[in-house]
Amino acid sequence: MIRFLLRRFLSSIPVLFGIVTTVFILARVIPSDPCKATLGERATKQICDAFNKREGLDRPIIVQLGRYLNNLIHGDFGMSFSQRRPVTTIMVERLPVTIELAAFALLFAIIVGVPLGVLAAYKRNSIADAGTMIIANAGVSMPVFVLGLMLQYVFAVMLKGTVFALPPSGRLSAWLVPKPFYQQWGMSENGVLEFISNHQILNGILQWNWRLVVDASQHLILPAVAVGTIPLAIVARMTRSSVLDVLGHDYIRTARAKGLSELRVVRRHALRSAMLPVITIVGLSLGSLLGGAILTETIFSLTGVGKTLFDSITARDYAVVQGFALVVGLTFVLVNLLTDVLYAVFDPRVRPS
To answer: Is the pTM here over 0.90, yes or no?
Structure first.
């Protein structure tokens, strides 16, 4: 298994190189001027000439690409044109927001979607089946911005003052000022510790600050439901289709003939075999969620990967776009590796020799 994973990861290096190269070249051949996008009305010809020379934009594309790849090997993602900060610093700030949102959304999709799909398959052509598929189709069809605004109105306006009220936007309450866990542990600050501490839920758990954990979790519920509804609907439909196919196999009839209860037949025999296509859908959904959800982050005032990428593309901030594109590509590579591992866990027939 270790050799298989290592071989898969090494074969993904050309993919990552292709992503970086493609994004690098496309960002520069599109008609645009980073100097004018960054400086606006102050962008005179003399200032832009100095800007392009300072940032190396006056050199041939192949020279710029070689310089960027050389810096990338040494862990330098470059400097943001618009924010004048290292791209790694921006990643440390913005990635945790999207990771937490993606984790909550995917957890919501799996916990709700898989049982709904199993119920619909077991109660085929019943009211429960029809109701589940109506919910799934509605989840796929409803735009995220519509669902997000509806959730905000219901839980932040209609239910305000009740125990069911939830924060409509933001990541934390204004009165809550969290401290990084490593400060309480007496550790010196570095990029890795700062990245971990920016996961507010994890940061609260590490310092036993349950008020922070609860507040951060409450702020993630509505955006996670909004962005996780489409994956939930897809997971439910895929689970139903896969379980229906498995329930018709001979070994399921054999399990029933042995006197096993229906719950055990479905849970121990049918569901395990039916999970392979569901795992594929979950893996693709996780990669997409970690790529950022622009509409959801905008509606709920969360500055994550999606909103950062949108702002950087608008500002022609090449370094930020390239850095986050590489991170998103690496995310899909790791998710594919995890999917392969889960395949082997659920089905011994696909385990590598």
So the answer is: no
